Amino acid sequence: MSKESIIITTIGVIFLIVMGVLIVKNSSSAPVTTVSGDQQTLLLGVNSHMTGSSSAKVTMVEFGDYQCPACGAAYPTIKNVTDFYQNNPNFNFIFRNFPLPQHQYAKISAEAAEAAGAQGKYWQMHDLLYENQSAWDPSVTQDPLAVFVTYAEQLGLDVNKFKTDVQNNAHVDRINADLADVQKLGLDHTPTVYINGEEVDKNLTVAALKAKIDSLLAK
Questions:
Q1: What's the CA gap between 69 and 71, in Å, rounded?
Q2: Single pTM value for the model
């Protein structure tokens, strides 16, 4: 083989090696975001709505927006998982408000959930908002509160108090407290979901989430 051929072959091999490294790098998963130390307080919040105990071995936290299509798509998976572990004292699910400014009814729907929570029906309203997300979309109604009132009636709430609370932004401080933690954590999308401080892909399947939770419960 001539000297020129050796040089060309060597360059070709180096090129293939570099390309291989780049392909592997670009196809790898995104870096995992982990919240630890002092930021755990920001993640969990103060007086947050939770399904279990604050001392549970495994805690899943979702920062969500009730009008967000991606949150609506993720809801069935998260609901399946939280229902599966609802009687496990070592599992806890926390939902934090993250109404995005581009969603017209995000804030008022968060107010509706909080107003229902003031009457002991937070999770029931939370579920109804996601399960009927398309029913109160801006393309369907210009009066989302009227729709939310029907949910309040369905849940047996004091409808007048519920409506007044939402209209008067009675629980806006709680929503703003969540948003303050969102800003401090530097979050920029919904849903953002963490399990024991580690962000997980919102597109994970029920089986994948259960496998992750089970591995942590077994430790």
A1: 5
A2: 0.84
